């Protein structure tokens, strides 16, 4: 009886643990998604349109106008361009190194932090499900070892618990894994566009 009560407590704890990490993983995934969506240019056409918009005021040495254009756009590339224009006197090569550091610190560090939690949930959920499987099978074998009449209903309950926790762990991990990989594709595209955009902006500043 004591072991049965203990198994029930552990079973509830496993269900709570699975629910908690599922919510935490989804929460971090949503934050990363929103961060990427609000930070990146969707395609090269948007990037080229932005570079063309600031090229004219920079060419005319109307830096205040270019700064105003960049300041109105909170995406990563305009903010990096804003920093480059405001620090143009330091030299293009030095500014280029600083832009790489700012992009990493201001944008990628938060994204990497959140994605690391998503990866942790992806790895942890099946393991917690496996723990539930072990606990369920222990309950089933404990029922068999009583030496009295076996409670087949209780045994079926324990086996069902074992299967449910395994399924829950996989049901949490697989969608998060697919979603994380989809976001990683967008992150790589964002990095490529930012790299191209920084090169274009610095080229404009270098020529002026």
UniProtKB/TrEMBL annotation:
Q: Where is the MotA/TolQ/ExbB proton channel domain?
A: 88-191
Cellular component GO terms, alphabetical? plasma membrane
Entry annotated with the keyword Transcription regulation: no
Keywords for this protein = Cell membrane, Membrane, Protein transport, Transmembrane, Transmembrane helix, Transport
Q: Which domain of life is it from?
A: Bacteria
Places the protein is found: Cell membrane; Membrane
Regions that span the bilayer: 12-33, 124-144, 159-179
Q: Name one GO biological process term.
A: protein import
- Known InterPro entries for this protein? ExbB/TolQ_transport, MotA_ExbB_proton_chnl
- Record membrane topology: Multi-pass membrane protein
Q: Which family does it belong to?
A: Belongs to the exbB/tolQ family.
Q: This protein is called what?
A: Colicin uptake protein TolQ
Source species of the chain: Botrimarina colliarenosi
